[in-house]
Amino acid sequence: MGVQVPLSQAYRSVGSVATIIYKGQECFVHIAVDVFVVLLYARTMRVLAFLLLCVWLDKGEHLELDQVVFVPEDWLHAGRVSLHEEVELTFALRQQNVDRLQQLLQLVSDPDSQHYGKFLTLEEVASLVRPSQLTEKAVWTWLQHHGIRNCNTVLTRDFLQCTMSAEVAETLLPGTEFHHYRRGDQTVTRSSSQYSVHEDVSEHLDFVGGVLRFPLSGKEISKAWAGPKQSGKAFHLGVTPSVLRTRYNLTAADIGSAANNSQAVAQFLEQYYHPADLAEFMSLFARGFKHLTEVERVVGTQGGGKAGIEASLDIEYIMSTGSNISTWVFTNPGRHETQEPFLQWMLLLSNMSVVPWVHTISYGDDEDSLSSAYMNRINNEFMKAGLRGISMLFASGDSGAGCRHLTKENVFRPSFPASSPYVTTVGGTSFKNPFKVTYEVTDYISGGGFSNVFPMPDYQVGAVNAYLKAGQKLPPESYFNRSGRAYPDLAALSDNYWVVTNLVPIPWVSGTSASTPVVGGILSLINDHRFLKGLPSLGFLNPRLYKLKGTGLFDVTEGCHLGCLDDKVEGQGFCAASSWDPVTGWGTPNYPALLAALMD
Predict the structure, then answer these.
(1) Which of 130, 290, 411, 451 has a Cα at 20 to 30 A from 100?
(2) Mind listing the domains of the chain with CATH numbers?
């Protein structure tokens, strides 16, 4: 009867995990020292030594143990970080009253509630979710114990950003080992292994940013159309603002005029727009209606060099659809090598009392590559925004249902934040005839499906269950979670756009990166009418959208999107159907009808 795992040994791997068993009792310990040698000679000392070992070593807690730790293939290793090199880490402090936050968001977003549209200010949101004094004290004490004092917080006090040497960071977060990685001209600093935090602060933190997650790659969103050219009424050679206005019934009079209205795009892919491209685009494609040719405000740092197609696409189409409305650009707000650009944008929203009412974001990652702690906390940030009356629109992605290849069988692969219950997700469509303004069918790349992390929210249960029970052929149930949050919520054209980038008109640009700013611009126009009538912004749209049951939208009932390329589904995901479906949501905007439906 003794120690079953030999304790007379040296552990040399910082951050390794050992299991020690004494009389059937397990002690899971995280080795937080370079070398630790246990030498036990006397049997009478074994129990005491075992207990002391557990107490002394079991100080580390993992906050994101389910976070995938890997280096994307487009990032090249560029060497170990110098111990004296500066890193910046973001600490997400545990918030208070998250249940109340969710309840209030539901009340202000439900048109049948007497609290509908009674949004809170950032200061009021801060008073609701601000971490407890105990949490703030515990985290600050922990940081200061390691000599860390160069920290900044946000107005809501639920994030801390601190700079320190890499040596201090690796001591603070046992298990970490920071390295440089390079992609083109961009360099980031990330840990090659998981991190833990001291047990005294584990219950006070949700996650630590700037350690594991890499910035996403920009995707190739331009593709040539290989179909035959058509002729006839409403003939066109690609989607432009005039084509969109024709299809979605926008007239020259449908422009913004409310002084307090604004909209924004957020970009995180090291892409930039050029003001000259925007002016050229408007001169070529925005004739016949009043529009702005300059962005009102850029938040972040505009890089030099060539403009990016995606950045140009976002700006040009939110400003030509939401025409004559003040527009902001949040551009690559995370510039330090250890910052996460998407997370940095979330921090900005928690620190700015005045921000635009509609935000469109073409950004996403696989759900299964992110930790549940990270995604749940980001959901809290979306709820904070919705409670302030901000509409968050995310592209559904360009991989259809996605596909994850497992050992025995495949499953669909949902995307986040598209799968968040607290954002409005936009899918994509194509014209039935690619060169005429006809009715729409699904774009085969349109992202959609069911979350494997978040349960189906109440606002969509009826619509989604109706789809699942409608009798159309569904993929095998082993491929998706039928009780998860289903997306997208609505859609717009996502195929064959014209974009001006680096002063060159580029045709055949496609992706839900195109449809999302179009929907954002239309919602901004509706906000404009609401403001002129003395009504509040639309805020978090989904509860109201699902109660409309398709009113104000063109139903899309033809086509399917991509799935796994295997014997069971043969490359097909879900298919469109009458009413809501997981390819195009409720359909695409019929502006006059949607405006009428949302004007009370």
Answers:
(1) 451
(2) 10-58 (no CATH), 76-95+130-209 (3.30.70), 241-253+261-597 (3.40.50.200)
